Amino acid sequence: VLDTDRLLVEQALAGDQQAFGELVVAHQHAVYNLAYRMLGERGEAEDAAQETFLRAYANLNRYDADRPFRTWLLSIASNHCIDRLRKRRLTWLSLDEPLPAHPALNSGEEEPEDAVISNERGVLIQEMLDSLPPDYRAAVVLRYWYDLSYTEIAETLNTTESAVKSRLFRARQALADKMNSAPSSAKLHFAMEGVR
Amino acid sequence: MTQPKHYNRQLARHEMNLALDGMLTDKEQSSLKAHLAESSADAKTWSNLQTVDRILSVEPMISAPSNFAAGIMAQIAAGKVTAEGHPYAVPPPRTDLRTVIGMLFATIAMMPVAFVVMLFVQRLLTNPVEQQLLLQRITWLVNVFAQAITLLLQVVAQNAWAIGITAGLAALVTSFTTIRITLSRMSRRNMVVYRIPVVAA
């Protein structure tokens, strides 16, 4: 995969747009998932993921071929999402506006009851993630959804390993505290029964 | 025989997190396990952290919309994004020949100014008469300013209309400053999202 990515980057730098298209197809889900987990909304996640790829294309000549292309993309996406979260201002969510459905509802692979439990769990988990500061959230997402090591997370977020450990540890503690104090914790425990 | 490790709350939490990330050795794991068997408070924390870890580990990746890649490639194909001149592109560091020539010209242009300033300083430092003259001018300026303030205060003190104008101006400045501070604080306020609990039916 790494060699394929490098080859595609070289071709894209030589002016082959189709090669960059293949890179987008290969990494779109990883970037989109990161943006969704960071921002918590489908529309904004799509915007952020799109901007990530456009920034990558515009700065392709700055890509260091010694690093995995995916890590570089995730680095751009993480920093962009953190910026977006910091720039957010007071937003009013109209009661008339329908909330976006959780993706698990659109999946046809699960039985109806499983889908309901999974959806409920997904909404609660996203709520818990949304309560974390942007830096902590990024560390958690990169650790759990991308299985990155402390070193890789530090490189992606342009920080130190000790900072990553600290953010990850505090984030877990904050999530544990929230899980115990929130009125929805009982539902979450119930939803977790299926995965134990 | 090695001494048993003494855990405080901070060390215990640190090692619990390392354990979740698979960063403890077998020996350290055994030591932590023994500690958790003795401390009910830390055992409760460990249980909570394990639950968080398990919850996060089972959440699936979310897929991008089906037309996502096509949308990006359409923008690129339309020429809206290129490596040069696009706002997303980071400008290259300015270490080219033009920068060097520009700095050289700026240095040459500044030389006459620097020469005049150096002459003035040299003359001032070596001539006591010039120093005295400069001091007198500064003193004169301070005196004029002080007299102007004194005169203004006298007028204000002797006339009711002047007191009214001064009080009005002070109120205006205070209001303006308060509004500026309030607006500035509002613009820095973080986002508040009003969420509606969603339970799938």
Low-confidence stretches of chain B: 188-201
- Principal-axis shape of chain B: elongated
The level of helicity of chain A is over 70%
Count, helices of chain B = 7
**Main sheet specs of chain A:** none
Uncertain segments of chain A of ≥5 residues (pLDDT<50)?
A: 90-97, 103-111
Chain pair with largest interface: A-B, 70 and 51 residues
Structural class of chain A: mainly alpha
Distance between the termini of chain B: 61 Å
Radius of gyration of chain A: 18 Å
Quaternary organization: heterodimer
Amino-to-carboxy terminus distance of chain A: 33 Å
| Approximate helicity band of chain B | over 70%
Beta-strand portion of chain A reads under 5%
Tally of alpha and pi helices of chain A:
10
Topology:
The complex is a heterodimer of chains A (196) and B (201).
Chain A lengths: L1 H12 L3 H23 L2 H17 L10 H19 L15 H4 L5 H19 L3 H11 L5 H7 L4 H21 L3 H8 L4
Helix pairs in contact in A: 1-2, 2-3, 2-4, 3-4, 6-10, 7-9, 8-9
Chain B lengths: L8 H12 L5 H13 L1 H19 L9 H10 L19 H30 L1 H31 L1 H29 L13
Describe what you observe in this structure.
The complex is a heterodimer of chains A (196) and B (201). Chain A is mainly α and 196 residues long. Chain A contains 10 helices and no strands. Chain B has 201 residues and is mainly α. Chain B is built from 7 helices and no strands. In chain B, helix 1 (9-20) packs across helix 2 and helix 1 (9-20) runs parallel beside helix 3. Chain B is elongated, with a radius of gyration of 37 Å.
